Amino acid sequence: MTPAEMESRIVRYGDLHPCKTAFIDAHTPGSDQKENFTIIGGGVSESPDQHVHLAIPHGFNIGAAGQPPKCRNSLHSHRTAEVFFVLKGRWRFFWGRWGNAGEVVLEEGDIINIPTGIFRGFENIGTDYGMIMAVLGGDDAGGGVIWAPQVIEDAAGHGLVLGENGKLYDTKKGQTLPDGLKPMPLLTDAELATFPEPTSADVVPHYVARYWDLMALADKKPVTVIGEHGRLRDKPGFEVALMNRNSASDEMHSHPYPSVLMPMRGHWRVSWDGGSATLAPGDTMSVPEGLMHNAVPSMSGEASLYHVVATGDPAGLTWKG
Known about the structure:
- The protein is mainly beta.
- 10% of the residues lie in helices and 36% in strands.
- Strands 1-22-19-24-18-16-17 form a seven-stranded mixed β-sheet. A seven-stranded mixed β-sheet has the order 3-2-4-11-6-9-15. A five-stranded antiparallel β-sheet has the order 8-7-10-5-12.
- Strand 7 and strand 8 form a beta hairpin.
């Protein structure tokens, strides 16, 4: 594969296209400053304004959220896995019907595999613009977002209406629901009762991994963070591993499914038969299935990289109760 062909599969951090109208809470005070990014796959945006950087199916989606301090993402749920690692800043993740069932604070490099089937939200509690990188299970990312009823009700007061087709309509711009299209129905009490309310003690030990723990575990070989045999045991349709300077190898290898390289710290040189490229923190590189390649740090200093590879498993439920 030529360098130009591979470069087309790299999304540079500085080239990311933000969308400020991606979801129903885009006008709601407290959430109206967030930026969403769809990097690989179709994502779950409800807005036609969302830019898709790389539409090639991988078996999972890669996205990101950027938010200034005190900005939050409203309570929602997914039918497949939602994994985040903190690229920049300090973030609070919270969950439950009203967001008060449990919470955890994540620092840079920490990773969370948020259980499916629960309402979750997150906010930047740092002092500067923060960035979290996301992996969503499945090529269709579970068919969209399920919002807590109060989120839909609050949004209507600020001009945004979500149609039952999963698309947003902004009444402040004169938009209305097309003839015959009904608004997205609110979840009923019976439906809401099916959403678990796990505590922090239920979630944190089994769904959160700390960066510096992973760095120590990756001293000899890459550590599988999320997977059937990972530190966070799960089969969400993909595996996530962390490698650092000590566990990186120049041995060429390939995967039977597409994989993605996402540097956390340091610069990494990725080589393949036909060329090489250097990645920096925040860059995202898609590696085709079957392509022989390697990734090693190209500069001195701290170096770490998250690696995501599809497994071919159904992107099913991950909450074990």
